[in-house]
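WP5 quarterly update. Target: Pseudouridine synthase. Source organism: Nocardioides aquaticus. Length: 311 aa.
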Amino acid sequence: MSTADHRTLDVPDSLEGERVDAVMAQLFGVSRSRAADLIARGLVELDGGAAAKSDRVLGGARLEVTFPVEQDPLLVVPEIVEGIGIVHDDDEIVVIDKPVGVAVHPSPGWSGPTVVGHLAGAGFRIATSGASERQGIVQRLDVGTSGVMVIAKSERAYSLLKNAFRERTVDKTYHALVQGYPDPLEGTVDAPIGRHPGTSDHRFAVVADGRPSVTHYETLEAHRFASLLEVHLETGRTHQIRVHMSALKHPCVGDLTYGADPVLAQRLGLRRQWLHAVRLGFEHPATGEQVEYSTEYPADLESALDVVRGL
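Structure tokens (predicted):
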């Protein structure tokens, strides 16, 4: 596939004396701001030399422009992604163990590996329902969160599973290592989540006009610096566990975005939040039988937990 489109034109006498960016706008049909960007990136030559946007052109001058072919950020690129494990596969669904650093589907601003790209590269046929970049996707996990997730292979499975997640009949269980000791040791956080006020990044927060969000937790282990929690989600908001734990003043260990202690993270060798989707239970779309799938902690989380237990 070509990664650039090279175009060459001679400047007509009628445009003599005009600025290069204005000439490009007329000859190539681009905006002047787009022309200025191409010039700034060194992709425009005038009579064989680098052009500046304020240069004035002569009639008959040779104008050469390289137009990069920008890849669609939502394009699914088939590729085998190292670390994705297949937990279960049948005609209706495929259940995977997603590693950290892998997005579920392509999105603007993300150029890394994706679950849908891996499934396409590995030859899996998945449902065609849903937007083109996330066909078959009925749930999502953050790039920085690992664990079990299900993808629909048939249209029937897509419809039934989408509805199950919408109706909150799917049992989503996570384990989270959080700083300190939650008080009480088990409970429910019912607090709306929305975009973090006053920021333009991808952070979220508990805000009065946010979407209803409910998280149930119980303490499995309590150690000197951190506690291991089992978390069940009623809702599935972006960053829900991370936001709710941060709101309780017990952020996930290693979650620097939401207030975790960087010194503790470094001590445990963590480069991401300690959060893992351990189990997923739902009614199988073909049989109606209740099924459950689970995954083990990845090596970095297991190692960090071992260190916490020994402190």
